[in-house]
Amino acid sequence: MRPTPLAANRTRREALKGLTALGAAALFGRMSGADAGAGEVLTRAIPSSGERIPVVGLGSWKTFNVGGDPAARGECTEVMRRFFGLGGRMIDSSPMYGSSQEVIGHGWAQLGRPGVLFSAEKVWTSGREGAAQMEATRRRWGVERFDLMQVHNLQDWEQHRPRLFEMKAAGRLRYVGITTSHGRRTADMEKIMRAHPLDFVQVTCNVLDRELEQRLLPLAQDRGIAVIINRPFREGSLIDAMNRHPLPAWAAECDAANWAQFLLKFIVAHPAVTCAIPATGNPAHMVENMGAAFGRLPDEAMRRRMIAHVGSL
Questions:
Q1: CA 253, CA 310: separation in Å to the nearest integer?
Q2: What's the distance, CA 12 to chain centroid?
Q3: Predicted structure pTM score
């Protein structure tokens, strides 16, 4: 007898719970041939609430923009299945990202809408159109409300600000943030961070692009603002460059089994960083990325060693 939709959803949820129960280290090792290190997924607290989220999330820029292609959508759903199974929570998207929102919503529904999802979205339009855009985005995801709503690249920030805080006060979203990328508009970011009680900022930082470590990341710590790091691999170009060289043997000292983990562990080891969101539509790459959320993180001395090593290549 064919199961009812409710029973099918329950089965999918139970399968996800079972996947997590297998143990993240064992699952990661079987899928990637690497040792994920011991214990639980690494988490950081959101300063404004104390809620803890895993230090590695999932971005969707370009990688989930696959339209209606059934095979490509299936791959994205598999990315999400493995992501949740390894303890992942935060998925980030934007109206700017083509069909990514619909593809995320499709995958979440296929997996039975597991409650572990931390939904991070953006508003990317003029202020008067913001409410309609956010509602359309919510329908594409199929969520009751978003956990985090961010103003994408500060577009019309002053117009969106009061609405977002009103929505938070009314329980229609949980956190408010702003974003930038490529190191742009950092002076504006700093000004806004000083003036308003933000929950999150999202910025670009990686082993080569470290300017924000000097002022903006310390400011986030001082102001109690969570930090999401985008473009940790420079949209793949940094990984491609590193893969032409052998991983140094001493990377094992922080349980980095590949370059993706090396680069992500460098980022999330910074005490101001809450979560990094590498984007991928490849299930195997997602598993490699999530490996950075297990085991040891580099200390400051090792971070300096990592900078020097990458700079020498």
A1: 17
A2: 23
A3: 0.89
Class at the top of the CATH hierarchy for domain 47-312 = alpha beta
Strands 275-276 and 226-230: parallel
DSSP E strands, the chain: 43-45, 52-54, 90-92, 118-123, 146-151, 173-179, 200-204, 226-230, 275-276
Helix runs in 142-236, H state only: 157-169, 186-195, 216-223
Q: Strand, helix or coil at 270? A: coil
In the block, tokens 């910074």 appear at 270
Of 164, 300, 183, the residue nearest 231 (C-alpha): 183
| 20 residue type, one letter | T
Q: Helices 70-85 and 5-21, interaxial angle, to 10°?
A: 50
Amino acid occupying residue 181: S
Distance of CA 155 to the CA centre of its chain: 21
Sheet of 275-276, strands arranged across: 90-92, 118-123, 146-151, 173-179, 200-204, 226-230, 275-276
Antiparallel, parallel or unpaired: β 43-45 and 52-54: antiparallel
Which residues are bridge partners to 201 per DSSP?
178, 227
290 burial level (CB within 10 Å; 0-12, 13-18, 19+) = buried
Give the up-direction half-sphere exposure of residue 60: CA atoms within 13 A in the CB hemisphere: 33
Angle formed at CA 209 by CA 208 and CA 210, multiple of 5 degrees: 100
Determine the Cα–Cα distance for residues 153 and 178; give it in Å rounded to an integer.
7
Which residue ranges make up each domain of the chain?
47-312
Of 121, 122, 196, 187, nearest to 158 by C-alpha is 196
pLDDT digits 0-9 by tens, 99-144: 999 999 999 999 999 999 999 999 999 878 999 999 999 999 999 9
What are the distances in angstroms from CA 207 to CA 60, 211, 231, 299, 304? 21, 10, 11, 14, 10
pLDDT by residue (tens digit) across 236-278?
899 999 999 999 999 999 999 999 999 999 999 999 999 999 9
